[in-house]
Amino acid sequence: MTEGAPALFVALEQSGFAASIRQSTWLYPAANIGHIVSLTFFAGAIAVMDVRLLGGLAATAPARLLARARSFALAALAGMAMTGAVLFSAEASHLAVNRAFQLKAVLVAAGLANIAIYEFWARRAVERLQPGAPMPPGAKIAGACSLGIWVAVAACGRSIAYF
Amino acid sequence: MRRPVLFVSAFALLTSAAVAHHGWGSYDANNPITVAGAIATSKFENPHATITVQASDKIWTVTLAPTSRMNSRGATEKVVAVGQNVSAYGYPSTVQKDEMRAERITVDGKTYEMR
Predict the structure, then answer these.
(1) Residues of chain A neighbouring B22 (CB-CB closer than 8 A)
(2) Of B12, B18, B67, which has the smallest distance from its Cβ to A157's Cβ?
(3) Structural domain contains residue B63
(4) Domain with B94 in it: what CATH number?
(5) How close does chain A come to B54, measured CA to CA in Å?
(6) CA-to-CA distance for A157 and A39, rounded, in angstroms?
(7) CB neighbours (10 Å) of residue A17?
(8) pTM score of the predicted model
(9) CA-CA distance, A139 to A57, in Å (whole number)?
(10) Contact: A25, B46; criterion CB under 8 Å
(11) A chain contacts of residue B46, beta-carbon cutoff 8 Å
(12) pLDDT per residue over A9-27, tens digit each?
């Protein structure tokens, strides 16, 4: 347990749920593998969407390509959230004060906010576009932000072990 | 078509670098130490088993390996149980006081590699 961590995270780490994760031989490594596998699917789906928003893969109809990639991205995001909750619970007090984890949490929030902003203000215009049509600037900005933010999230995730 | 390919490869490169293995960055590998004494507390848990050792001068926290690796090397929960005499060779933490990460431990004349 890490001294000085907020009580909520100490309580989570000391819960029976978290203890059973730590005491299981396979659960923690399984969650670890699941988290990385979900990340690879998420990264792939997000890269396809972001590249399309930036104007790449221009021969495709944006609406169809984005819809297909979105279902992969959502499934992978759910996988990362579930496995991440397992990994977090086992070491909650340490992670809550870990600089890399804190930055990662902020970046995840930024990534989700970027998605919300896109869905609200740019999505409809994008999905009306024909193949080959130029992307509106708002869509390009959302795509570039997404690519940058999610790569940074992955880098922060791996960096947790070094802080 | 060249630009999206560049984006995707940059993304793949960054994420693959991100799944590389743990380093021992926060441990001082230039000054290895040996901590010997009786095991005061033992947690046979993931992500790493941890013991505290009553050494001659103070109590050390000794970080061991994941439980699956401990078991496969023969360093089972019984081997690192409270009361056992252990000698741990490893590197002191540069972050946490009186903590070290064991490269190998010796119990009852038997040595177990932790890496």
Answers:
(1) 161
(2) B18
(3) yes
(4) 2.40.50.1010
(5) 19
(6) 10
(7) 13
(8) 0.82
(9) 14
(10) yes
(11) 21-25, 27-29, 90
(12) 999 999 999 999 999 999 9
Model confidence pLDDT, tens digit, residues B38-71 = 999 999 999 999 999 999 989 999 999 999 999 9
Give A133 or B13, the one with higher predicted confidence.
A133
- Which chain A residues are Cβ-neighbours of B25 within 8 angstroms? 162
Domain span at B59: 27-113
As for the ipTM of the complex, it is 0.75
**Rg of the Cα trace of chain B?**
19
**Who among B14, B25, B46 is closest to A155 (CB)?**
B14
From the DSSP assignment, how many helices (H) and strands (E) are in chain B?
2, 6
Split into its structural domains, chain B has a count of 1
Chain B residues within 8 A of A43 when measuring between CB atoms: 11-12, 15
Determine contact, residues B50/B77, Cβ cutoff 8 Å.
Answer: no
